[in-house]
Amino acid sequence: MSETEDVDLEQFRNETRAWLESNCPPEMRKPATSDADVFWGGRNTKFASEPQRIWFERMRDKGWTVPDWPKEYGGGGLSAAEHKVLRAEMGRIGARPPLSSFGIWMLGPALLKYGNEAQKKEHLPKIAAGLIRWCQGYSEPNAGSDLASLQTRAESDGDDFVITGSKIWTSYANYADWIFCLVRTDSAAKKHDGISFILFDMNSKGVTTKPILLISGYSPFCETFFDGVRVPKSHVVGTVNRGWDVAKYLLQHERAMISGMGERGVGRPLGQIAADSVGSDAQGKLDDSMLRGRIASFDVDEAALAACAERAVDLAKAGQAHPAFSSAMKYYGTELNKRRYEILMSAGGVDALEWESERSRQGARPRAWLRTKANSIEGGTTEVMLGIVAKRILDLPGA
Amino acid sequence: MALVLTEEQSMLRDSARGLISDKAPVSHLRSLRDSRDPAGFSKELWHSFAEMGFAGLLVPEEFGGSGLGFMEAGIVMEEIGRTLMPSPFLATSVVAASALNRGGNAAQKSEYLPKVSNGSLLATLAIDEGAKHRPLQTSLQAVRAGNGFKLSGAKALVVDGHVADLFIIAARTAGAAGEREGLTLFLVNPKAKGVSIERTIMVDAHNAARIELANVEVNADSVLGEVDQGAALLDGVLDIGRGAVAAEMVGLSEEVFNRTVEYLKNRKQFGKLIGEFQALQHRAAELYVDIEITRAATMKALQALDTDVAKAASSVAVAKARAGTTATRAVQEGVQMHGGMGMTDQFDIGFFMKRARVCEELFGDASYHTEQLARARGY
Ligand SMILES: Cc1cc2nc3c(=O)[nH]c(=O)nc-3n(C[C@H](O)[C@H](O)[C@H](O)COP(=O)(O)OP(=O)(O)OC[C@H]3O[C@@H](n4cnc5c(N)ncnc54)[C@H](O)[C@@H]3O)c2cc1C
Ligand SMILES: Cc1cc2nc3c(=O)[nH]c(=O)nc-3n(C[C@H](O)[C@H](O)[C@H](O)COP(=O)(O)OP(=O)(O)OC[C@H]3O[C@@H](n4cnc5c(N)ncnc54)[C@H](O)[C@@H]3O)c2cc1C
């Protein structure tokens, strides 16, 4: 890095710190503890609180809902180095992301790479401004880990495709405005070669959703049915029958995002949270030697993973990353997050077993614990991630 | 003693399994949960339990019980674990019955034990006060008042506390929290003045309550065992409870395992049964080994309890610690290997994960028992 760049970056850091200090409401500097604390955007969205609205609007106006997207698409146009500074400064004060969405994490990066100009202009600014909420139509009952065997058909009819079939595990399909969806456009081709990546409005005729209840007692995902849904061919992203490339590229971003999911949400160090309920001895050591050991080795691994995540981003920006490395991160990050919640459950003991009381905030902790069990399933299972590492990074035969 | 079931024990297992799998499959727990059943268990089934001699399984024959041992109690617990049936069996027939039988005087035994045997009395031990199981930390106060005592304090995770007819409450009559001396067990009527009971709806949809005592008056006859010397009685009773919960966890683990292996033999991805993937085969095989080892350790602990409760502590610590880690692993693998399906409420596997978590906390988790073993071995 040259000296002037250094100076500029330092200035950017100072300005950002000052701006965040005066613009991030104090309420938004605490970890989100429930889904209601997360602002997802969309046509029917409501803000959970006034600070949430203010924070979102201020960040949106700076383009910092998507800091590294180009300005012309509603982004902040930040360089990789500036984006890193912004993340660090937000982390320093514990600022929440102003907007969470599948549009930001998944579709946006795929559109930036594979979308045509019209598609980028149409969709990216609406994602950045939280106007449209997206869902992901990949998995089907018989196409989970083996995603490429998906059967939802898109039949050509003039300028349109007519889509018929069903998806499952579609997160927030009942709240989403639009879907990015994998469909089979050529059933004669080999399974990876007949898939297209297509976008459509969830209000289209023939789309229905049916919520599925999770073991956490919440219903964040759905079965999604398409009965002759008519979609203009211009809504295909990339080339017809080459959707698998887009799908995989998007998955890399999704996996990187899921890998880091545990970083949000907890706030205080685990050992301190445990001390609240377990107690400490005269020397200030957690009064449960095994639990203390578990937490300490968790802390070691978490700090090391954070370094690896930072390095992964830097390598990617430097063009030196292995494209499959997000699978390694996804595997480790999700297993670590499951460990975090196992520890939180052990630390909470009896108190963390209550499911409905006021005292337990309606079982917030056990419900969050159960939800983390999906981390190593959604976005590709741990087994599939390790398979990808074995095959694409280690080049093992037959993998 | 051989670590295999005798013919009589196999028959007991078959009859318990027959009744439980027929009348209380997992759907039974589900419907109690979904209907928000006020009792949280089936009274009708409890009567069947009594008729079959299970309610008084550990109670001596002279008090109308079956006079069987902890191995037999473990056999019933294991079957309960397979279907997650909510039942007063653990709190009443194992823990409270043992406390009454081991600590009670002649009058107390003849008053309560026959009612345990015929299923008409539900009883429970109230022990934990903080978030974690720490029996010696008991600080619920019992102060002498006239001819009796006055009790004040709170207890958490009182199993069946919302339906019990009798509380057995660990209280401090002397000494400070953390000390062995000065613990006393009291028999307390839940309807007594100053007792408040809050049913707690738990993650596993099984039954528990928090209770609070504000100057609850009891007479001297309510002391179970000796004043200030309750720790030894409590140790034995808790070890019995631990052995029983370990057995429940073995049943639970094995059932989750069986269901998961079944799924590996049926679910196809990539044109193959997922059970063909060696990554899953090895994990299933490891889990099998894990469960077998824990089962043996649990049988060993139950036998040790049958031989001499006072000398069973280390075997029980091994069993409960192993049961905790094994069950945790079994349910995690169960959910993971079922993919998205395992995350749905509609599918039963999540119920096992939830119950395993509660069993892990009940009477001390794996950390607690590992620590106990280390202390017992002098390091
Ligand atoms: C909370 C949650 C949210 C989700 N959100 C979405 C969403 O928004 N959109 C969407 O499209 N999908 C979503 N999914 C679906 C998710 O991507 C799939 O569940 C996942 O890919 C696994 O597929 P499956 O459930 O069919 O499991 P299966 O593929 O049937 O897997 C069952 C088990 O077999 C293992 N297995 C499979 N193949 C192999 C192999 N070759 N080697 C070793 N082990 C193997 C798996 O790892 C798993 O343990 C979500 C899932 C969850 C749980
Ligand atoms: C100390 C020692 C003493 C021995 N004594 C005797 C003896 O007295 N008599 C005798 O006949 N032999 C003996 N052996 C040989 C021993 O049986 C072989 O080493 C063993 O069977 C493994 O064979 P290998 O060395 O060819 O390794 P490989 O079979 O080449 O295995 C290499 C690695 O691949 C793994 N692997 C192989 N197949 C699979 C599979 N299907 N799935 C997953 N992983 C796989 C193995 O586990 C191993 O990690 C001895 C070996 C040692 C180390």
Folded structure, characterized:
The complex is a heterodimer of chains A (399) and B (379). Chain A has 399 residues and is α+β, with helices and mostly antiparallel strands. Chain A folds into 3 domains: 3-100, Butyryl-Coa Dehydrogenase, subunit A, domain 1 (Orthogonal Bundle), CATH 1.10.540; 134-242, Butyryl-CoA Dehydrogenase, subunit A, domain 2 (Beta Barrel), CATH 2.40.110.10; 260-393, Butyryl-CoA Dehydrogenase, subunit A, domain 3. Helices cover 43% and strands 14% of the residues of chain A. Chain A contains 11 helices and 8 strands. In chain A, the strands form 2 sheets. Chain A has a 4-stranded mixed sheet. In chain A, strands 2-3-7-6 form a 4-stranded antiparallel sheet, with no helix packed on it. The longest helix of chain A is centred in the last third of the chain and has 29 residues, at 289-317. Chain A starts with a helix and ends in a 6-residue tail after the last helix. The mean pLDDT of chain A is 94. With 379 residues, chain B is an alpha+beta fold. Chain B has 3 domains: 7-121, Orthogonal Bundle (Butyryl-Coa Dehydrogenase, subunit A, domain 1); 125-229, Butyryl-CoA Dehydrogenase, subunit A, domain 2; 231-376, Butyryl-CoA Dehydrogenase, subunit A, domain 3 (Up-down Bundle), CATH 1.20.140.10. In chain B, 50% of the residues lie in helices and 16% in strands. In chain B, strands 1-4-5-8 form a 4-stranded mixed sheet, with helices on one face. Chain B has a 4-stranded antiparallel sheet with strand order 2-3-7-6, with no helix packed on it. In chain B, helix 1 packs parallel to helix 4 (70-83) and helix 5 (89-103) packs antiparallel against helix 7 (230-264). Chain B is globular and about 80 Å long. Classes of the chains: A alpha+beta (399), B alpha+beta (379). Chains A and B meet through helix 8, helix 9 and helix 11 of A and strand 9, helix 9, helix 10 and helix 11 of B. One flavin-adenine dinucleotide sits between chains A (135-139, 144-145, 169-171, 221, 374, 377-381, 383-384, 387) and B (267, 269-270, 274, 277, 279-280, 336-337, 339-340, 343).
